[in-house]
Amino acid sequence: MTTPEQIVIVGGGLAAANAVEALRERSHAGRLTLVGRERRLPYERPPLSKELLKGDQEFEVAHDEAWYAERDVELHLGEAVAAIDADAGEVVLGSDRRLPFDRLLLATGARPRVPDLPGVEHAVTLRTVEDSLALRDRLGAGGTVALVGGGWIGLEVAAAAVAHGGRAVVLERDEAPLGRVLGPRIASYLVDLHRGHGVDVRTGVTVESIGPDGVRTSAGLVEAGTVVLAVGAVPETALAEAAGLAIAAPEQGGGIVVDEHLRTSDPRVFAAGDVANALNVRVGQLRVEHWDNAIRQGQLAAATMLGEEDAVYDWLPYFFTDQFEFSMEYVGHSAPGDEVVVRGDLAAHEFIAYWLRDRVVTAAMNVGIWDVNDRLRELVGQRVDPGELTDLRQ
Ligand code: FAD
Predict the structure, then answer these.
(1) Chain-wide mean pLDDT for the chain?
(2) 296 and 363, same domain (yes or no)
(3) Are residues 23 and 105 in the same domain?
(4) Lower CB density within 10 Å: C or N end of the chain?
(5) How far is residue 367's CA from residue 358's CA, in Å, rounded to a whole number?
(6) SS3 for 353?
(7) Ligand 1 in contact with 110 (CB < 6 A)?
């Protein structure tokens, strides 16, 4: 592979910012251009449903303008890439301006899933800092917020609403929020935690429509001044699709299909972060929507775009959340049928959960017990005797 002269990165999120940093660290001396649809410089999204939403923290970008200037990055913010002209080796901006590339990184992330429900326009979503600040104002004004979906973001927003002194109703279609990810025991622990803080968690509920007065469900009207859609995200693949790149089927997680080097079906084009459905050499093909993955895949894409063939996607997925007293880190990749073994004290919010398949650890989560995640990471993939698993505090 020849050394690229001109690299274009599409998407102004964390994967993009980390690719910029790693490209310059790895001595890419050529032209480096970043095109981002949001007007803001890249920033971290986890605080948008936590500290920023609660009002405990003000908004910050990941790096300021001077940082990009020092790295000689040509920034096009508030501008979307409208098309990839693969034959010409150019991206076409919304303004019709064309930017040539030798390597192109698609780091276009994901957008909130909007279900096809009558009255859905009365609901809001949470993805950008503007969404978070607008929702913070609504939560600050009090009243009831209804969360359509009891995933991580839905539960975090419920916790933030309570922190503002408001009322939160979580509407979950399944038996328990996150039951398929966490298993019934920990899912019911989470329900108890939220109910203990006054969150009205309703499970087995189907949302039928949304209106200005709240949400109509299979179990009647839930009155709410604010309705938040929290039913997952959809990868932003439109550009890649139009350019004829391979896209994963929705049942495979969707996203742009890339190999273990994050290379798409066009060898000049790479994808990283939430939009990438990548071959993890330890876990298999998967799409991961987590902060740590956006950072590391941004860095990996930088290495592989510069021709480092031994750089591969080989780390385990990792994520974290904070809700009331529940503060955790999770590492690995479990499946719904895995056995869950819990060690420690659920009532004290200090425990470790292990996911096992045929006695092999597929994932582990430390809750309220810190500095153990690296040890848990080493256990993933190992065959264990469940009787010997502990909460690692001895
Ligand atoms: P994004 O951050 O989505 O950035 C992609 C950017 O590309 C966007 O700015 C988009 O506007 C832009 N773009 C899209 N199309 C185009 C185009 N055609 N032209 C130009 N620009 C384009 N993860 C955790 O591990 N822990 C958490 O606690 C956690 N909390 C979260 C809370 C919230 C509210 C959200 C929304 C996410 C959270 N995440 C969390 C997930 C994490 O933030 C994402 O995995 C991460 O932001 C993905 O980064 P990315 O760079 O791939 O994509």
Answers:
(1) 96
(2) no
(3) yes
(4) C
(5) 24
(6) strand
(7) yes
Q: What is the DSSP letter of 370?
A: -
The whole domain housing 41 covers 6-111+233-305
Q: CATH number of the domain that 349 lies in? A: 3.30.390.30
Final residue before a domain boundary, out of 213, 229, 245: 229
Q: What is the pLDDT of residue 2?
A: 72
**What is the domain-level CATH number for residue 209?**
3.50.50.60
Q: Same structural domain for residues 299 and 343? A: no
Cα angle 174, 253, 315 (rounded to 5 degrees) comes to: 105
315: Cα separation from own chain's centroid? 16
The answer, yes or no, to whether any atom of ligand 1 lies below 6 A from the CB of 10, is yes
CA of residue 359 to ligand 1 center, whole Å: 35
Ligand 1 proximity of 14 Cβ (cutoff 6 Å): yes
Task: Note the Cα 198 to chain centre separation in Å.
Answer: 27
Q: How far is the CA of 45 from the centre of ligand 1 (A)?
A: 6
Ligand 1 center to 44 CA (angstroms): 8
Which residue among 45, 74, 234 is best mutated to probe the pocket of ligand 1, counting the most ligand atoms within 8 A of its Cβ?
A: 45
Q: Which of 51, 291, 329 should be mutated for ligand 1, with most atoms under 8 A from CB? A: 291
pLDDT band of 101, cuts 50, 70, 90: very high
Q: Whose CA is nearest to atom 15 of ligand 1?
A: 108
Q: What is the pLDDT of residues 337-364, one digit of tens each?
A: 999 999 999 999 999 999 999 999 999 9
Give the model's pLDDT for residue 234.
98
155 and 212, same domain (yes or no)? yes
Instruction: Name which of 189, 214, 182 is nearest 355 in CA terms.
Output: 182
Does pLDDT of 1 surpass 90?
no
pLDDT at 136: 98
pLDDT classification of 180: cutoffs 50, 70, 90: confident
- Output the CA 223–ligand 1 centroid distance in Å: 31
SS3 category, 352: strand
In a domain, 207, yes or no: yes
User: Ligand 1 test: best mutation among 53, 79, 108, 111, most atoms within 8 Å of CB?
Assistant: 108
In a domain, 315, yes or no: no
Q: Over 90: is that where the pLDDT of 72 sits?
A: yes
Single residue among 229, 250, 265 that ends a domain in this structure? 229
pTM of the model as a whole: 0.97
Is 149 touching ligand 1 by the criterion CB < 6 Å? no
β-bridge pairing 144-148 and 226-229: parallel
Does ligand 1 have an atom closer than 6 angstroms to the CB of 320? yes
> DSSP labels for 167-205?
EEEEE-SSSSTTHHHH-HHHHHHHHHHHHHTT-EEE-S-
Q: Is the pLDDT of residue 394 over 80?
A: no
Same-domain check for residues 281 and 382 = no
Number of domains present in the structure of the chain: 3
